[in-house]
Amino acid sequence: MLIAALLGLAGLLGGSFANVVAHRGPVLWGFANRPERATGRYDLAWPGSHCPSCGHGLGPAELVPVLSYLALRGRCSACGARIAPRYLLLEALGGLAGLSAGLLFPVPFAFFVLALLLLLMTAAAVDSETGYLPDALTGPALWLGLLVSATGVGLDPGAAIFGAALGYVALRGVEEAYRALRGREGLGRGDAKLLAAGGAWLGPGSLPFIVLLAAFSALVVIGAQAARGRSVEGGTEVRFGPYLAGAIAALLLARPLVPPSVAALLGAP
Ligand SMILES: [Zn+2]
């Protein structure tokens, strides 16, 4: 219980850092621009956290995850500009991720699970905001899965390697087939790399379930948007990364909760 609470706390801080990466990463990786970059040093640590509207530097009390957002009612204390709900969402999700990793998994596997969940939610935030899934996030998620399996606390290493390769090849195949048939991009290459990470963590047997769960949740969300009057056509871009990331996280966390026979069906070793 103490471990779960500590991991929950680590998750809150990790979620707060995930916000920094999601905001600044796209600029540092070269697929977005922001005016404040032109004014000098710009990286994950500098300049200090500030309001993007007025430049007000955040004090220690304003950096406390979740509580500061709620206390300020989602507005900058200096200029009153709205703070994007994503900040609250990633911090809260990070805390929840740490808590559930600590409750569901033994140490040290729980630490690795929290690291993976933080990478997945950062990747989902970046993809939904920019349409890119950067290697800087999918790469570590994949390598971490392979390394964890090599330490003997996760999957059998053979299953992890086979799952990673099959996950990548399967979505690359879909991507190439779509391009050949329709003459334009359907899936991004980052999606294949993200599914490779899912295969490294969950094994080859889980790949169809990851893809099905992701596709099903994407359909539910698109259906809900269409019901609210947003037009949806064949050419409407769907950013698949957040759904894939969510499906990988959900299946990983579900594994200790379901009976062993169901877990085996989901591809557990
Ligand atoms: Zn402000």
Automatic annotation (TrEMBL):
GO MF term list: aspartic-type endopeptidase activity; methyltransferase activity
Transmembrane residues, as ranges?
Answer: 96-120, 141-171, 209-228
A cellular component term (GO) from this record?
plasma membrane
Q: For the Prepilin type IV endopeptidase peptidase domain, which residue ranges apply? A: 115-221
Q: Which residues form the Prepilin peptidase A24 N-terminal domain?
A: 10-99
Q: Give the EC number.
A: 2.1.1.-, 3.4.23.43
GO annotation, biological process: methylation; signal peptide processing
A matching Pfam family: A24_N_bact
Q: Which UniProt keywords apply?
A: Cell inner membrane, Cell membrane, Hydrolase, Membrane, Methyltransferase, Multifunctional enzyme, Protease, Transferase, Transmembrane, Transmembrane helix
Residue spans making up a coiled coil are none
Compartment(s)? Cell inner membrane; Cell membrane
What catalytic reaction does the record list? Typically cleaves a -Gly-|-Phe- bond to release an N-terminal, basic peptide of 5-8 residues from type IV prepilin, and then N-methylates the new N-terminal amino group, the methyl donor being S-adenosyl-L-methionine
Q: Indicate how the chain sits in the lipid bilayer.
A: Multi-pass membrane protein
Similarity field: Belongs to the peptidase A24 family.
Write out the function statement from the record: Plays an essential role in type IV pili and type II pseudopili formation by proteolytically removing the leader sequence from substrate proteins and subsequently monomethylating the alpha-amino group of the newly exposed N-terminal phenylalanine.
Q: State the protein's name.
A: Prepilin leader peptidase/N-methyltransferase
Organism expressing this protein natively = Parvularcula dongshanensis
Taxonomic path: Bacteria, Pseudomonadati, Pseudomonadota, Alphaproteobacteria, Parvularculales
